[in-house]
Structure formats: C-alpha cells, structure tokens
Amino acid sequence: MHEITLIRGDGIGPEIVAATLDVIEATGVAIDWKEAAAGESALESCGAALPEETLDSLRETRIGLKGPLTTPIGSGFRSINVALRKALDLYVNLRPARSYPGVSSPYRDIDLVVVRENTEDLYAGVEHMVGPDAAESIKIITRSASERIARYAFEYALREKRRKVTVVHKANILKLSDGLFLEAVRSVAAEYPGVEFEERIVDNMAMQLVQKPHFYDVMVMPNLYGDILSDLCAGLIGGLGLAPSANIGDGIALFEPVHGSAPKYRGKDRVNPTAMILTAALMLRHLGEAAAAGRIEKAVAGVLEEGKMLTYDLGGSAGTAAMGRAIAEKIKRDR
Ligand code: NAD
C-alpha cells in the first residue's frame, strides 16, 4: 500500500484529478490517499494558500499527486507551486513530451525530455521597485544548483538509455549568470564521456525545436527557459492536454501536469484529463509500479488512437469524466 498526498487543486484541477483517480483505481495499485489543500481553494477553505499541514503531509509521505493551482497575475499571493518546490527542495522539473498516434500535431515520433532547474533563476522571485517607474528582478544562478541539475540530467540519460544531453543557455548575453550555469554543466558533462553532449543558445533552440525536434533528446536548462520551452514541446505533441511532469528532490517527489488551472473551463467537464493521467503514470513508475504505469500509457494510446472519446482540444466532444472512464475501462479490459 502506497501512502500518497493528494492535492486536487484549483480551476479544472478537481475534475482532472477525479478522472485520474478512476484510472489509477483501474490498475489495482493500492493507495492510501492523504488529502491536502493548496492554492486558491485552500485560501478560501482554510485561510492559507499553502497550509503547514500540506507541507507536513508531503514531508511525511514523500510523494504527492497534485492538480494545477491558480496564481494571481500581477498582484495577490505568490505562486504556491514555486513555494512548494522551494520548501521541499524539489530541484528537478522533469517534463517528457512524447507523440501519441491518432493525435493531430505538427510531427510524429517526438520523444523529448526537458530537465528544468526548479529552484532558482528569475523564478526565485527576488524583485523590487526602483522608484515608482522602474522594477528590477534578480536572476539567481548558483554553481551547486547548476551542477546538481546537470548531474540529474546525465544520470537520467544513462538510466533511460537516451542518446544525448543538450544544455540550453543564453551565456552570450548573460555572461555571469548563464555563463556560470553553462560552465557548471560542462564540468559535469566531462564526467559522462559515454553520453553525447552539446550546447545551444535558447533562442536558436526554440527555432530548432520547431524545425527539427527529432534532432534533440534530453535538454537541461535554467528555470525560466525550461518553463517556456516545455510548453513549446507540449505544442509539438498536440498541446498542454497531453503533457505530464514531475518535481523531484532527494527522496521526495511531487507530480503534476505541465498545464495550469484553466479557470475559464472550471466545472464545465470539458478539458482533457490525459496530462494528469500520464502524470499519474510517471508517479507510479517512480514508485516502482512500472507494470501499472505501462498499462495506463497503453490505454491512453489506445483511446487516442481510436479517436472516439476525445475532448475538445483533440477535436472530439467527449467530457473530461467520459474520456477518463474510457481509459479506465480499457485498463480493466486488458487486466
Ligand atoms: P493554463 O495551462 O491553465 O491554460 C492555458 C490554455 O491551455 C487554456 O485556456 C486551455 O485552452 C488550454 N489547456 C490547459 N490545460 C488543458 C487541458 N487539460 N485540456 C485542454 N486544454 C487545456 O495556463 P494559463 O491560462 O496561463 O494559467 C491559468 C492559471 O494556472 C494561472 O493562475 C497560472 O498561474 C496557473 N498555472 C499553474 C500551473 C501549476 O499549477 N503547475 C502551471 C501553469 C499555470
């Protein structure tokens, strides 16, 4: 029996989490869910956007499954996602992007992995006004955080038998901050002579990912570039509705889809639950439940390929719950 902290999240979170729980149940993996609150909904129900009990639960179970959380734009409370990653030192944001048959997208056979540094860069949120008409945000890069994300990327490449690691940076302009990141990744790369290593400047990388994505494999980069390029990668495989992710630290991990809480679709039973469902598969694989994870991925591929139970973003008219049920039923039939 696995103990897992469950955060249903804001906006579309509760709907996609409900569909995902049906799918996990269909695999037969026994889970003792510890429900915890975070985000806008937690602020409304318990007066804190990140209650201490939620952090305690994650520290105890060491594993969490989380729906997206709403972050107010401009003013209001700071991102709870960023706060969670910092508080639990979840320094890796792993974002795989894989093509599925039957999904209309610019390319077939995409298999990319963004390894995004998850604790520093402009995401550290260190910013202030300089007088009334200027604002300053500080980009923080340290050698230790850069080396540990680089080491994760190379270890991941070895473990998953990937061909190469590309470091993405802007060290031509940001000579000190990205320069330090690049230098740290180069020094770690030298310890892995068996893994091909190359360097790309981030703007060029964005263009190349659009023009020849098959050329790339594992990409390691600072926080903000990882945020942006992983959405680009999601676009290459058919959209945010299909993109899972994991936030990983030492002996602790929090799994969530790449996409946000899409507030305009809240309660409408319209959005695609697949990113959340594939996130659950990533989580089960992390827990050593590879067979159950494989069954979920196979059922997702089957439902996508059949094309009958698809949500609006994939050209269908099925609801969130119905698509989730179709995936769950396929798993049960194949068991
Ligand atoms: P978003 O990802 O919520 O939505 C952008 C658009 O993508 C949506 O309007 C919708 O068209 C589409 N989309 C997203 N998820 C989908 C799904 N499952 N199925 C089908 N279509 C889907 O991004 P946003 O509108 O920029 O942000 C909304 C809120 O989410 C903000 O408060 C933001 O801070 C937050 N956010 C949270 C996370 C997280 O919790 N990890 C990540 C990103 C954004």
List the keywords.
ten-stranded mixed beta sheet; Isopropylmalate Dehydrogenase; binds nicotinamide-adenine-dinucleotide; globular; two-stranded antiparallel sheet; 11 helices; 335 residues; alpha/beta; 2 domains
In words, what does this structure look like?
- The protein has helices at residues 13-27, 40-46, 52-61, 80-87, 143-159, 177-189, 202-211, 223-236, 274-286, 290-306, 320-334; strands at 2-7, 31-35, 63-66, 92-98, 111-117, 121-129, 135-140, 164-169, 196-201, 218-221, 244-249, 252-257.
- The chain has 335 residues and is α/β, with parallel strands linked by helices.
- The chain folds into 2 domains: 1-93 and 242-335, Isopropylmalate Dehydrogenase; 106-237, Isopropylmalate Dehydrogenase (3-Layer(aba) Sandwich), CATH 3.40.718.10.
- The strands form 2 sheets. Strands 2-1-3-12-11-4-5-10-8-9 form a 10-stranded mixed beta sheet, sandwiched between helices. A two-stranded antiparallel sheet has the order 6-7.
- Helix 7 packs parallel to helix 8 and helix 10 (290-306) crosses helix 11.
- The longest helix is centred in the middle third of the chain and has 17 residues, at 143-159.
- Bound molecules: nicotinamide-adenine-dinucleotide (NAD).
